[in-house]
C-alpha cells in the first residue's frame, strides 16, 4: 500500500503524490504514454490555490561527519552556520536543522554545504515568518516535545526537542543531542492538572 500513489483529478488537471520516487516516475511515464499531457513538475497552483513548497531539510536526510563528500572551505561554512544559529533566536522552525549543520563545522563536505544552502533558500522564501503575540489571544500555556531516537548517524545518540508557547506565540524552544546513547525511548504526556502519564517502549 505504501507504493500506491495518491491522485487528485479535476477535469484535465491531475495532481499525484507518493513516498517512493521510482514509483512516482513510473506512474508519470505511464500516464504520459497513454494520455497527451505536460509534466508541470512541482505543484505551485491548483484550483486557484497557491502552493508554496519549502522545507529546511530534505525529509529523512541524515548528515554524517564522514560522508566521503568533497571538502569545502571550513571558514566559509562555519560563518554560514554561525549566522544561521543567530537566526534561531527568532526562528524556532530552523532550530533542528541548524543544530545538525553545526555538528560538522570542523570538516564540512559539499553535502553539508548543499544542506546549508538549502536552508538559506528556505530562509529567503520565508522572510515573513516570525513570532507574533496578539493582544486578544487567551493566555494559555502549550508545550510540545519530540525525540529523534538514535537520529545521529555518527554516534547513534538521540536528539531531544521542545517548544512552549503562550498566547499563541512561542517563547522557548530547544533542540539538543543527548549526552548518552539511549537504549529505549520514553513518551511522557503532561497535563496541567498535576497528572502525568507515561508510555515505555
UniProtKB/TrEMBL annotation:
Entries under InterPro entries matching the protein: DNA/RNA_pol_sf, RVT_2
Domain of life: Eukaryota
Domain Reverse transcriptase Ty1/copia-type: 6-56
Protein name according to UniProt: Uncharacterized protein LOC109115268
Amino acid at each position: 500500500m505504501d507504493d500506491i500513489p495518491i491522485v487528485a483529478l479535476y477535469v484535465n488537471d491531475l495532481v499525484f503524490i507518493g513516498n517512493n520516487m521510482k514509483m512516482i516516475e513510473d506512474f508519470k511515464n505511464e500516464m504520459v504514454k497513454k494520455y497527451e499531457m505536460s509534466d508541470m513538475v512541482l505543484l505551485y497552483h491548483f484550483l486557484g490555490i497557491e502552493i508554496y513548497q519549502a522545507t529546511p531539510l530534505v525529509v529523512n536526510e541524515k548528515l554524517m561527519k564522514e560522508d566521503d563528500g568533497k571538502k569545502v572551505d571550513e571558514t566559509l561554512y562555519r560563518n554560514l552556520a554561525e549566522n544561521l544559529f543567530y537566526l534561531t533566536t527568532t526562528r524556532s522552525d530552523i532550530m533542528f536543522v541548524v543544530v545538525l549543520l553545526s555538528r560538522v563545522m570542523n570538516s564540512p563536505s559539499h553535502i553539508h554545504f548543499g544542506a546549508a544552502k538549502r536552508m538559506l533558500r528556505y530562509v529567503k522564501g520565508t522572510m515573513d515568518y516570525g513570532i507574533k503575540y496578539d493582544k486578544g489571544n487567551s493566555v494559555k500555556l502549550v508545550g510540545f516535545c519530540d525525540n529523534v531516537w538514535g537520529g545521529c548517524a555518527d554516534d547513534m545518540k538521540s536528539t531531544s526537542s521542545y517548544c512552549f508557547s503562550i498566547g499563541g506565540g512561542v517563547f522557548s524552544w530547544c533542540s539538543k543531542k543527548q549526552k548518552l546513547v539511549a537504549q529505549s525511548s520514553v513518551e511522557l504526556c503532561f497535563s496541567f492538572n498535576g497528572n502525568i502519564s507515561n508510555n515505555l517502549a
